[in-house]
Write the structure tokens for this entry.
Amino acid sequence: MNDLLAGLQSAFGLIIHLDHDLVEISLRSLQVTVSAVLISAAIGLPFGAWLSVTRFRYRRFAIALLNALMGLPPVVVGLFVYILLSRSGPFGVLDLLFTPTAMIIAQVIIVTPIIASIAHQSMRDLWFLYHDLLISIKTTKWQRMKALLWDGRRSLLTATLTGFGRGIGEIGAIMIVGGNIDHLTRVLTTAIALEVGKGDFPLALGLGIVLISMAILINLAIHILSRTEREGTW
Amino acid sequence: MVETILPVELKNAIVRKGEKDIIGPLDLSFGATGCSILIGPNGAGKTTFLRLLHGLERTNSGAVRWAAKKSDVFSRQSFVFQSPVVLRRSGIENIAYPLYVRGVAKKAARTEAEKWIDEIGLGDVGCYDAHVFSGGEKQKLAMARALITKPEVLFLDEPTANLDGASTLEIERLILAAREAGTRIIMATHDFGQAKRLADEILFMYRGKIRERKPTDAFFNTPETEEAHKFIRGDLLL
Ligand SMILES: Nc1ncnc2c1ncn2[C@@H]1O[C@H](COP(=O)(O)OP(=O)(O)OP(=O)(O)O)[C@@H](O)[C@H]1O
Ligand SMILES: [Mg+2]
């Protein structure tokens, strides 16, 4: 209980004073995960739409695989990216290991299947409703995908935010490929792990509270900005 | 119009689902003008028949032949479904959508859609999400969306099934106007009054076959088959 109170106190202290390190770490967390989520959405949303409107031989298998990829263990993804980016690995020359870029790459691999899979589920239901009409109007495949992406935008936003939630709280992969280097690759989750390791629970809790608040605020802000709650029933 | 896509001809056409022949074998054709109305009991195959002509169903044997080449045929038809499909966007955007698909510029498409939304009396609610529309309003919306492309053939599957008297007459006015403008109408209905008001000819469908095809008056006054006779009288058809 004391730890909790001290944690709250220290969190408020850090926030009110806009502690320089805290701001830096928080912004890096945002930078990494927002970049990763934007890239993942750019890949995952169209892919989900494509999967909804396309019939091919191994479609069921592809969907099952996608759903399985949602549960990729971050640590393994981190290891995989580490091997690819390490000096002796195939992309070693790019010298990306232990940089925010490496962390973004790892998170894209984790987040893309999540966004694609949730997006596909909602667009598949929409496609079921639209199917006859869009075929009757003689739309091209691209037009069908566009209609699903646009008309399903609210659930796609939810899919994207789910991906964000997964990314911002993720530690397994970014710890491995980022290395938790101060002023370079330290983010909220890795900082928390470090402080816990050092036994500084109040600071760790403070960082945790900042992390949670940030996730909530981002969700609220996006919902308000897009006015989806007020605008309609879908 | 360059050349007409009609007549359309069915040659020994059969649609099968599972083990069952749902419609057919059918041999008939539809010429370039007029309004043909399909009547018959529930499950007779009217919807399947319309969908087959429109290309949403395939024949399991036999064929449907249009007078023009395939790529031209479908873009010159519209279909209004038995339960209206609305897109999750505003009324205006719903109506404009087929024009967008055909590559009409956004502004021109919207202007045209605004004309149509006034035409169907939904001008005041056109900017709202069409999902909140009532059943009848959705039906009118589907009608406007079908007509905006000035189709050569218009398929209507019970377009007034959920409508009150006034709305029914409004839809009928739109159908008649389209017919005047040269659109070929092929529709299904359970409303005999409507069939008498609109149809040039009646096709009586029963258990997947066209049992009778006659000019409207002749059909209602002197039906030939026993089934048609019973159906008009309102007897149960088993
Ligand atoms: N995909 C399908 N699989 C199996 N049976 C089907 C399928 N589609 C339609 N049927 C059957 O085909 C028959 C004809 O259906 P259809 O919808 O064409 O009838 P309808 O004349 O339009 O009836 P209603 O007046 O009720 O609209 C029905 O018995 C229906 O159950
Ligand atoms: Mg029907």
